[in-house]
């Protein structure tokens, strides 16, 4: 998570203990610090429901107003994070310890947990985690299945074409010149006999791959239908925006999370998507450079939306023509459009109308 781009809760006096947590797949390590920085205790729990409840019980030994500073709230710590948020506790995402800290103190689970807690006490950059409890979490999970199905389908198509290169001449000539759809349908309809020769083996393999592709096509259609309904329910305004379809909306919603209010401004969302320029000034030189950080999937989604609008949206095309007249290159125009689209998407995610309907 790019925490530097998100809202930064600052330490206050509304807590009586800070719990730093270093998360792992099978266990978590927690360290309790007093508000003055004194170490109170450390605790290790398994990543199961009983472990989460045991951690909450252990925390209550030090007071009734804890703050949890966790690493990996969207990965290994996702289950614990959701449990703590559901119980009404304050949870923030802590950055990983920097390299200088690890050089000085070494690498250990309890050290990492303590560093997370001290980062909160120091007020250094931390962020509000995604809640992961509503439509967007459902979208994220279905996207994983969809992307996997697309990858498997692409591999199967490539394997069919590779098999045809070395297939017996009669079979290769029979399938030559067919479109992709015709090729898959023809191969799926093969009825090979016994495995008595390379020709029969080729037909068996081609039929297996073709039927796998057909099954994946059916699976993808179901997933896209579900994602369409979920994105419409999560943010109807986003889907109504020009050039934003199921894929783009799914990616942008996942980047923002179920609780987009954690993003303090449209500039923070643009930075999260890698669509904001970074200062690169020195001395009398004042310049900015391309941002290659942030969520690259979200950045790619913004790029695709910009390309669609440049092709079909008249107001965007007029804007691009005007900027070309000012000497900007196509790459610079697209970067500006991505920044504008990020601003528009942020307002839609927060339930507000966009400032304008097109870049101007």
Envelope shape: globular
Q: Could you say which structural class the secondary elements and strand pairing correspond to?
A: alpha/beta
Helix content: 55-70%
Biggest β-sheet description? 6 strands, mixed
| Number of helical segments with 4 or more residues | 14
Strand content: 5-15%
CATH architecture of the largest domain: 2-Layer Sandwich
CATH class of the largest domain: Alpha Beta
Overall pLDDT, averaged?
Answer: 89
CATH topology of the largest domain: Nucleotidyltransferase, domain 5
Task: Give an overview in words.
One of its GO terms (molecular function) is transposase activity. It comes from Cyanobium gracile (strain ATCC 27147 / PCC 6307). This is Transposase. Keywords: Coiled coil. One of its GO terms (biological process) is DNA transposition. The relative contact order is 0.09. It is built from 14 helices and 8 strands. The chain has a 6-stranded mixed sheet with strand order 3-2-1-4-5-6. Strands 7-8 form a two-stranded antiparallel ribbon. It has 3 domains: about 5-125, 2-Layer Sandwich (Nucleotidyltransferase, domain 5), CATH 3.30.420.140; about 135-235; about 250-350, no CATH class. Helix content is about 55%, strand content about 10%. With about 350 residues, the chain is of the alpha/beta class. Helix 11 crosses helix 14 (about 330-350). The radius of gyration is 26 Å and the shape is globular. Helix 2 links the parallel strand 4 and strand 5 (about 90-95). The model is unreliable at about 1-10 (pLDDT under 50).
């Amino acid at each position: 998570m790019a925490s530097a781009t998100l809202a930064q809760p600052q330490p206050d006096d509304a807590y009586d203990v800070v719990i730093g947590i270093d998360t792992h797949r099978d266990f978590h390590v927690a360290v309790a610090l007093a508000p003055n920085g004194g170490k109170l205790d450390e605790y290790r729990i398994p990543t199961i429901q009983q472990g989460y409840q045991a951690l909450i019980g252990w925390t209550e030994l030090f007071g009734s107003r804890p703050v949890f500073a966790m690493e990996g709230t969207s990965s290994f710590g996702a289950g614990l994070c959701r449990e703590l948020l559901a119980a009404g506790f304050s949870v923030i995402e802590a950055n990983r310890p920097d390299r200088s800290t690890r050089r000085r103190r070494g690498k250990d689970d309890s050290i990492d947990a303590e560093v997370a807690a001290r980062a909160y006490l120091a007020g250094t950059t931390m962020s509000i985690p995604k809640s992961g409890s509503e439509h967007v979490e459902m979208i994220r999970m279905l996207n994983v299945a969809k992307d996997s199905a697309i990858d498997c389908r692409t591999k199967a198509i490539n394997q069919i074409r590779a098999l045809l290169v070395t297939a017996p001449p009669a079979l290769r000539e029979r399938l030559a010149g067919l479109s992709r759809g015709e090729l898959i349908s023809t191969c799926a309809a093969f009825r090979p006999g016994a495995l008595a020769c390379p020709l029969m083996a080729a037909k068996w393999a081609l039929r297996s791959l073709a039927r796998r592709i057909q099954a994946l096509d059916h699976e993808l259609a179901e997933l896209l239908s579900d994602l369409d309904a979920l994105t419409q329910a999560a943010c109807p305004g986003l889907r109504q925006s020009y050039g934003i379809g199921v894929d783009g909306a799914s990616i942008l919603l996942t980047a923002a999370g179920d609780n987009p209010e954690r993003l303090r401004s449209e500039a923070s969302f643009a930075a999260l998507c890698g669509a904001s320029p970074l200062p690169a000034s020195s001395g009398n030189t004042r310049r900015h450079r391309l941002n290659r950080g942030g969520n690259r999937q979200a950045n790619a989604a913004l790029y695709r939306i910009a390309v669609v609008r440049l092709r079909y949206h008249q107001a965007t095309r007029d804007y691009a023509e005007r900027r070309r007249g000012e000497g900007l290159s196509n790459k610079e125009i697209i970067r500006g459009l991505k920044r504008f689209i990020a601003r528009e998407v942020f307002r839609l995610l927060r339930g507000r109308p966009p400032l304008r309907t097109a870049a101007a």
